[in-house]
Amino acid sequence: MNASADGSLCEALIYGFSGLLGAEPEVQADAVLIRAGRIQALGRRADLSLAHPAATPIELPGGLLAPGFVDAHVHPAFAAGRAAEFGMKCEGKSYQEIAAAGGGIRSSARAVRDASEAELTAQVGKHFRRMQRHGTTCCEAKSGYGLSVEEELKSLRAIRAAAQATGMEALPTFLGAHAVPEEFAGRADAYLDALIEEALPVVRAEALARAVDVFIEAGAFTLAQARRYLEAARALGFALRVHADQFTALGGVELAVELGSESVDHLEALTDAGLEALALSGRTFAGLLPAVPHFLGQDADAPARRLLKAGVPYFIATDFNPGSCYTPSLPEAVHFARRRMGLTAAEAFHGITAGAAASLGLGERKGRIAPGFDADLVLLDLPDLDHFGYGLGENPARWVMAGGCALSFE
Description:
By secondary structure, the chain is α/β, with parallel strands linked by helices. The protein contains 15 helices and 17 strands. The protein has helices at 45-51, 83-90, 95-100, 105-114, 117-133, 149-166, 188-205, 223-235, 252-258, 272-281, 291-296, 304-309, 330-341, 345-351, 354-359, and strands at 11-15, 19-20, 31-35, 38-43, 56-59, 64-67, 69-74, 136-142, 169-177, 211-215, 239-244, 263-266, 285-288, 314-316, 377-380, 397-402, 405-406. The strands form three sheets. It has an eight-stranded parallel beta sheet with strand order 7-8-9-10-11-12-13-14. It has a five-stranded mixed beta sheet with strand order 2-6-15-16-17, with no helix packed on it. A four-stranded mixed beta sheet has the order 4-3-1-5.
């Protein structure tokens, strides 16, 4: 077969799909030519076959060909699930009550600390494979369940190794400031000192993460603590991404905008002041995580329609993690974005492709089907875009290609 050293097809002609999503509307094409992991051309199969006789043919069984999905908010570095806590949620316990009883993020930290780096890498790899099965070919991957300098570095290394092993393009984010670890109870500032003085320089020196994140919330980190931490990270050259306004509005959205954060995510408790700050910025993305309120049994959702009306750039993500949203499926997130947030199918599709890619600085090579873009593709077993998110509990992804390599899930 016509393949390069990394396993991607040197040149291939993909055809047999019934329609294209994520291409320019005026494009009329029934074939896509890829070469060395990139899309080279879109056009008529007969013309492309004639011009590129050596291209390996790949015939698809109908369906919609879309760009590979980009999940811009994922917590894959966990070693064990928290199914017992899910039962507690179903019985009416809140996220905060479970955390106060010793569960939550600290529970995941205990499991990560008990796992070797090899064991954690294997678990992250399994999580990435589950995501790929549902069409995700690129993700932002956070640490945050180690809650110590050593364990957070272990988590970032596991993310890097798992990405290399699975073919997932993972953009790592350092989320050491996810919660205050048990050994620093009542001493959050001391924990942040350790992250700033010990962890961040190593993360930068070893290129283990491109961005830094912090959870601004009652029971996690205050606005003043987050400012100090984010300013230190920015001074080292890290991009910023922020968790804020999930349960309470503490000014985290306004801080994220002020510091030039790439995104601020959750926003279920977004205020008018926060929305105005995002609208005036025009640069900080709203990270919409629509499956989380469903999983936690919350009534409140991020005000997606108001955000879109105000022209705020946005993306939709799963927030895949063991405690507050145990799903690796972006199509499932699209269902909740449409049903709970009132987004159209086109708006939701943008949120997991071009919007998500742009939020990560990848808008020039991911999230669209166009010449020069990465050959990240997913075939959806759907008759049209209106059916995207219509089904619940189904996986429409029938074939996935990442970087020119067709993925196998056998």
